Amino acid sequence: MFQKLVAIEPLDMIPEAEEKLSSFAHRVVLFRDIPGSSEEIVRRIEDADAVLLSYTSTLTEDILAKCPNVKYIGMACSLYSPESANVDIRYAEQRGITVTGIRDYGDEGVVEYAISELVRCLHGFGVKPWDGVSREITGIRAGIIGLGKSGGMIADALHFFGAEISYFSRSEKPEAAEKGYKFRPLKDLLRENEVLFACLNKNVVLLHQEEFEALGNRKILFNTGLTPAWDPEPFEEWLLGDNRVYCDTIGALGGEKYLNYPNVFCMKVSVGRTRQAYIRLSEKVLANIDSYIKKQSGK
Predict the structure, then answer these.
(1) Which among 19, 29, 155, 196 counts the fewest CB atoms within 10 Å?
(2) Both 125 and 57 in a single domain?
(3) How many other β-carbons are positioned within 10 Å of the β-carbon of residue 96?
């Protein structure tokens, strides 16, 4: 059991889960606003031995060095790799601090968003139809960049509606081949498909100048990641063509300046933050804490 557990910012956990936090620590402090500075984060942590945070704040080496009592950090957000995390995991490991994160809690909402916006684009619901006349997903050539959990779910949903699926990933996926999905080198994937879905981890950029040249004109590009999958200069040049881009958040788009383009469609809201996602997030955060405490107690 922890002596003091501090949530340095809102966690998107359901009330029942927040109440259960009291069973893991003698004292629980929950902050309801986002800290405005590194100094404020240090003040909030104080002498806590356990810290919880979401995706809006960052725990750097400098911050953690000023909080010597911290033994456990629970990320109430996605953790895919040390490089993409908003916690300095390398430094935490040196200090013997355990860092846990969660995955796959908001993917269902992302899939619904992708299908919904593609349908609106093709049929012309609220916008000019992509082909000038209403069209189905059936037969469309769709490329998935990053066939992880969310990318795979989007591929399956598109396949259900009759799309032809190909993908690029760090390695070929045998299970994808069984479904008839074709592995393609990235530039070939960009050339051959009409609609592309970038489903990459935070801060992973794969679309550079040469990739946009391969992508060409008359294409639909979705980015379902937290950050842009592209370099800004070739992306902005590509936007001048007869293309469309879809993102849920301004962070995924790369900045508010792109909102002025008529072929940019940004919801300005995280589509993965649904009621069901909050429940899944809460359950996974609590399970991580429970597992850590049991491991420390030898149970």
Answers:
(1) 19
(2) no
(3) 8
Q: What is the pTM of this model?
A: 0.85
User: How many residues can be counted in the chain?
Assistant: 299
Closest by CA to 157, choosing from 218, 111, 192, is: 111
Looking at the 3D structure of the chain, how many domains does it have? 2
| Main-chain dihedrals φ then ψ at residue 160, nearest 5 degrees | -60, -35
Q: Name the residue range of residue 36's domain.
A: 2-105+275-297
Q: What is the pLDDT of residues 115-147, one digit of tens each?
A: 999 999 999 999 999 999 999 999 999 999 999
Specify the residue for token string 């992509």: 130
Pair (250, 284) in one structural domain: no
SS3 string, 116-170, reads HHHHHHHHCCCCCCCCCCCCCCCCCEEEEECCCHHHHHHHHHHHHCCCEEEEECC
Q: Establish how many alpha carbons lie within 13 A of residue 250's alpha carbon, considering only the half-sphere containing its beta carbon.
A: 7
